[in-house]
Specification:
The protein contains 4 helices and 2 strands; from the N terminus they run αββααα. By secondary structure, the chain is mainly α. Strand 1 and strand 2 form a beta hairpin. It is globular, with a radius of gyration of 15 Å.
Length: 98
């Protein structure tokens, strides 16, 4: 069930082979820590941070898809958006759902 969840969060969970309900808090009430599969050092981090890092990387991928690369003057996704591109969510869904 994905009603009431941020659609980007739902796609992130799906990209990990999970459901949104699979992430939450541990037995102590702390935000659950998970393996960041994209981290070269394979660190355990709170799932909220792993989600945030994943979205940031997807924004960069999306901008590159439109020909915008990281510059020292700003984030490429902002430059892509300023150029009129608005299809991030459609692109993201296609990346996750194939």
């Amino acid at each position: 069930m994905t009603d009431g969840y941020n659609p980007r969060y739902v796609l992130w969970a799906k990209s990990r082979g999970k459901e949104p309900e699979d992430f939450g808090r541990d037995e102590n009430g702390d935000i659950e820590r998970i393996l960041d599969e994209d981290d070269e050092q394979r660190r355990m981090m709170s799932w909220t941070v792993v989600f945030m890092l994943w979205i940031e990387a997807r924004w960069t991928d999306w901008a590159a898809h439109h020909g915008f690369m990281r510059t020292r003057y700003g984030d490429p996704h902002r430059e892509a958006m300023l150029a009129g591109h608005r299809d991030f969510d459609v692109w993201l869904e296609g990346q996750v759902n194939g």
